[in-house]
Design a protein that fits this description.
CATH superfamily of the largest domain: Type I PLP-dependent aspartate aminotransferase-like (Major domain)
Strand content: 15-25%
Structural class: alpha/beta
Strand order of the largest sheet: 1-2-3-15
CATH architecture of the largest domain: 3-Layer(aba) Sandwich
Shape: globular
Largest sheet: 4 strands, mixed
Number of strands: 17
Bound molecules: pyridoxal-5'-phosphate
CATH topology of the largest domain: Aspartate Aminotransferase, domain 2
Length: 387
């Protein structure tokens, strides 16, 4: 009997420790973790530098109120701003809070310049921005919103439908908010030319561009942010997942222009940006944002993609497409996704589903070549057995 509510369909497996790219189950089995808590464990499990940071910071100070200066948060905010388009940061605890804060920042900006009716946010239908009341309605998914009443203020267009996107912009639109790479939606990459068009469109209509990098950001794409390659500068970017390496941290990054609306009292969080979280965020940031680390992500990605494509060529009736960028990889199948994931798991390889019959592969960003080889061998084996 479990006293946990039934809002998850959990697999009958639990883990008691992890090391690097491996998870060890309570029944003594060793699994190669290629989902990283859904793009969270960016440095794998029990990374020595993160363990050291937690140990040292936990002896000094865990939590103080945001009523006071928090030097560790100042340090991380500075690093994030120096590395990216951003001028200011607000820290949160999760991705949904970060996207919700992004919406608030956009609305508040228009309020502060005397356009209080510009509140509507235009999003991709069946995207994923989190599970708070506002963010489920931002996601525009029937399944996610069913039974939860109504939160207004969001309009939707279909992925790739540029005509409808343009038509849906009204005098009340505040921002377009999209995931640079749709994660839950099936690892769909918005091409660079499209991001540029989005930026131009936002400039022309004098609205804001929010790029949700909760899943694809923090070096997962091979660049610190997935939009960097396009040279586009968004106005607001929510982040979470990878920046904490397993510790709950979220943040919303913004430029100077929009930050003006965020005056004292407009937003806050009891836990957001506390010293323990910030110490960890600083350590993750110092590791994942270096050129060497990013080059390594790119190398691992190239190797993974080229070999997955070889498997696809061998089994065209099983694998339809290999999608994604960096170490955010989607294997779209012709066959039943759940059965495939189960078979990978029987072979001690952990992956996770995404929409459009995609199996998501999200290894730790410091995954080793030999671990990628093991994953490839298992995927190949499972394909050969199904055939
Ligand atoms: C793109 C995106 N935005 C927001 C979220 C919500 O993050 P969290 O689950 O930390 O609230 C997710 C989570 O998967 C995500 O992928």
């Amino acid at each position: 009997m479990s006293y946990l509510a039934k809002n998850y369909n959990r697999k009958k497996i639990s883990f008691n420790h992890g090391k690097g790219s491996y998870l060890f189950s309570t029944d003594g089995k060793k699994y190669l973790d290629m989902l990283s808590g859904i793009a969270v464990n960016s440095l794998g499990h029990s990374h020595p530098k993160l363990v050291k940071t937690i140990r040292e910071q936990s002896k000094k100070l865990w939590h103080v109120s945001n009523a006071f200066q928090i030097p560790e948060g100042e340090k991380l905010a500075k690093k994030l701003c120096k590395k990216t388009f951003a001028d200011y940061v607000i820290f949160q605890n999760s991705g949904a809070e970060a996207t919700e804060a992004a919406i608030k920042v956009a609305r508040r900006y228009f309020y502060s310049i005397g356009k209080p009716n510009r509140t509507r946010i235009l999003c991709i239908k069946n995207s994923f921005h989190g599970r708070t009341l506002a963010t489920i309605f931002a996601s525009g998914s029937k399944k996610m919103t069913e039974g939860f009443g109504h939160v207004g203020g969001f309009d939707h267009f279909n992925f790739g439908d540029h005509k409808s996107l343009k038509k849906k912009i009204t005098k009340n639109t505040a921002a377009i908010m999209v995931e640079t790479i749709m994660g839950e939606g099936g690892i769909k990459v918005i091409p660079d030319w499209c991001l540029k068009e989005l930026r131009n469109l936002c400039n022309k209509k004098k609205i804001l561009l929010i790029l949700d990098e909760v899943q694809c950001g923090i070096s997962r794409s091979g660049d610190f942010f997935a939009f960097e390659k396009s040279k586009v500068k968004p106005d607001i970017v929510p982040i979470a997942k990878g920046i904490g390496g397993g510790f709950p941290i979220g943040a919303v990054l913004m430029n100077k222009k929009v930050a003006k609306g965020m005056t004292p009292g407009t937003h806050g969080s009891t836990f957001g940006g506390n010293p323990l979280a910030m110490a960890i965020g600083n350590t993750v940031m110092d590791i994942v944002s270096t050129k060497k680390f990013l080059n390594n992500v790119k190398k691992s990605s190239k190797y993974f993609f080229s070999n997955l494509n070889k498997i696809k060529a061998k089994y065209p009736k099983i694998i339809k497409e290999i999608r994604g960028r960096g170490l955010l990889i989607g294997v779209q199948l012709h066959i039943d996704q759940a059965m495939f994931i189960e078979k990978l798991m029987d072979n001690k390889l952990l992956t996770i589903r995404a929409a459009e019959n995609v199996v998501r592969i999200l290894p730790p960003l410091n995954v080793k070549r030999k671990e990628i080889d093991i994953a490839l061998r298992v995927i190949n084996k499972v394909c050969s057995e199904i055939k």
